Each structure stands twice: as C-alpha cells, then as structure tokens.
Amino acid sequence: MKNYSLVFYYAFFALVTTFFACKQVDSAIKPGIMKSDFGNLPDGRTAQLFTLLNEQGMTVKITNYGGAIVSWTAPDRNGKYEDIVLGCDSLSGYLKGTPYFGALIGRYGNRIAKGKFTLDSVEYTLATNNIGNHLHGGIVGYDKVLWTAEPINGPEPSLKLTYLSKDGEEGYPGNLQIEVVYTLQKDNALHIAYKATTDKKTIVNLTNHAYFNLTGAGKGDILGHELVLHADVFLPVDSTLIPTGELKPVAGTVFDFTKPFKIGARINETTDQQIKFGGGYDHCWVLSNNSTNIKPAAVLKDPESGRVMEVFSTEPAIQFYSGNFLDGTVIGKGGVPYAYRTGLCLESQRYPDSPNRPEFPGTVLAPGEVYKSTTVYRFSSL
User: Using 50, 70 and 90 to split pLDDT, how confident is the model at 270?
Assistant: First the structure.
C-alpha cells in the first residue's frame, strides 16, 4: 500500500506542476503588433495607430501620421508601467497643431539660417517658420504627412514607415526616398533606424521629437529629472537660436552635464546669455565620442519614479530642449494641458545650420549614397 500511495503522490504532484506550468505559459505576455484606426484626415484618408508590445509588457503606440510616437509605457522602480511621452488621444489633436509631439522630423531637423543654403553653386530657398529661419522641415514637414506603414510581427515587433519626399517639397532638391523602422526590443529599448536615398544632391538630417516626462505624461514638470550628456562642448547660438559657429567647452558653465545634474538646478541662470536666448536649454551638444558607430549619448533619471532612460546613437550630436515653449495651450492625453517644461526632448542629429557652416560635419547626400542613422532609447529603473 505504501508503494501505491507513493506512486499516487508523485503522479498527483506531476499533474499539479504541469497545470501551473501551463497556466504560466498561458499568462505570459505574447509580443506583437496591433493596428487600429486613429482618425481621418481632411482629405478623407484614414490614419492608423500601431501598438507594439514586448514580452516585458512595454507598449509603444505609433501613428503613421507624422510617424509620431503617441504613447510609450515604461516601468517604475516597483514595476508599474506608465505613459512617459506627451501626445494626443486622437488624430484631431495632432491636426489642430502640436509642437512636434513624438514626430519624425525632416528633411532637415533643427534650424537653417534664413531658410537658405547653397549646394553646388545653386542657392535654395526653404520655407521660414521660426523667427525668420527654417525649422524641422518647414511648414509641412515629415511630422505632417501620412507615411506608408508596414507592421512586422515577431519576438521584437517592428513598424516600417516609408515616404517619398518629392523634389521641391518645402524647397529641398531631389526626390528623397525615406525608410524609418521602429523596433521594440526585449530589453525595453526602442530602436529607431533611419535610411534614405536621393536622385539629386540634397541635405538630410532626420530625427525624432519625442517629449519625455519620466514621472508620467501630464504629471508635473521635468525640473527634478537628472541628466547626463556625454558631451564636452556645445554649440552657442544667436538670439534666433542659430549656431554662431563656435564649439564652446561646457566646463565651468551651466551647460555642463558630464556628471548628473538636476535640470532645474541652473535652468534659470539668466545671467548666462545662452540661457536667455533659449529661454532655458534649447541647444545642441557635440558628443565626445565622434565614432559613427552607436555610442552612449545621454542618461535621464527621475528620482521620484526610479525610471531611467539611456540614449545611444550613431549621430554626432544631441539637441536637449527643456520644453520652454510649452504654455498649456495644447491639450494632451486625458484632457490634460501640457504646461511649461512638462516635457523634454533629446534629439539625436547632425549640427543645426550645417549646410551654411563648412566647418561643421557635412549633411549632403548624393545619388548612389545611402543615409543611415540609428538611435536607441533604453529603459530601466533605479
């Protein structure tokens, strides 16, 4: 009898173990990508919203209108996921106008002085939309076009967006064929790969304009966030935020983020002319590592939630913008107005106004060449 009891016990134990193992498999998060309608454009076309989900439970929602990151959840120190990017609940919010929330930026990210540049002795005139300068691709930049979307399912779901920017669009020369692939990786990182080709010499500088608040979108300002920028110099600007051409060491200035500093600690140092010009931080830092390989660019920490975001990029520079022009007029997700400095941007890029600065790294793309750029935003917690 004892032997039969022992056999029964082990059989029962195996059955229970198998049951709970199956339950764990059933309850495991299955990564993938889902598509839904996001709203209609004035011309009747429908924008889509794509939700990428990884096995950790992170979600990134991206619309093919402007390629914008609409929502992005990340875990705090207790494992609680919360949306950490500014955005709108529906397409109508973006159509009313936003300061580039989460959007793909091009053909040239950042500013070009007076909207003019010369290429092979030909002067090109671009749209001017910012204090007499050209900003983020012009009046109808890539943030305001409907991209062709191709969802790619798998263990690390991806969304491929493509767009043909025609010769003469916003004043730029050449038909530029662009491909951007967002991939949500297993380690809670979003990998963004940019690629472009042209049939005529042109200039290219692509980036993403996500506004981050690691405490949670709409939950106060970002002044308590701690920032590290892997950069020893930055680009001073004039009163219209165009680089002067100088590369200024950050040492001994309020622009030194080589060690962690709270963003709010020195942001109101208006005795600094550069802070006055930017209304805070709205400058380009040149990364100390000038390799074209992917490398560390920045680290952002929120002591309150414990969320940490690392930025890696193949680009030579990063623009840090502290949300100085947010004023509460744009209503965000959940009906929350986005007030002064409630979000910040860390935009990997080439230098602003490079086409007019021969001493800056070049941004010219010729036929037969391929523009490539990669940026990764990776999340963890303290």
Answer: confident
The pTM of the full predicted model, rounded to 2 decimals, is 0.92
Q: Give the C-alpha separation, 284 to 336, whole Å.
A: 29
Q: Note whether 311 and 375 are within 8 A (CB).
A: yes
Q: What mean pLDDT comes out for the span 108-131?
A: 97
Place of tokens 């809670």: 188
Question: pLDDT at position 294, please?
Answer: 98
pLDDT in tens, 281-290: 999 999 999 9
Of 136, 191, 209, 283, the catalytic one is: 209
Print burial letters for 234-265: b (CB count within 10 Å at least 16), e (below 16): bbbbeeebbbeeeebebeeebbbbeeebebee
CATH number attached to the domain at 33-381: 2.70.98.10
Identify the active-site residue in 169, 226, 315, 347: 347
Which long-range contacts (C-beta less than 8 Å, at least 24 apart) are formed by 293-298?
A: 294/374, 294/376, 295/230, 296/230, 297/229, 297/230, 297/346, 297/348, 297/375, 298/227, 298/228, 298/229, 298/230, 298/346
316 contact partners, CB below 8 Å, separation of at least 6: 286, 287, 290, 350, 351, 361
Give the pair of three-digit tokens for residue 196: 């472009």
What number of CA atoms fall less than 13 Å from residue 349's CA on the CB side? 30
Instruction: Tell me the domain boundaries of the chain.
Output: 2-30, 33-381
As a whole number, mean pLDDT of residues 126-132 equals: 96
Query: Is 347 a residue of the active site?
Result: yes
Task: Answer yes or no: 209 catalytic.
Answer: yes
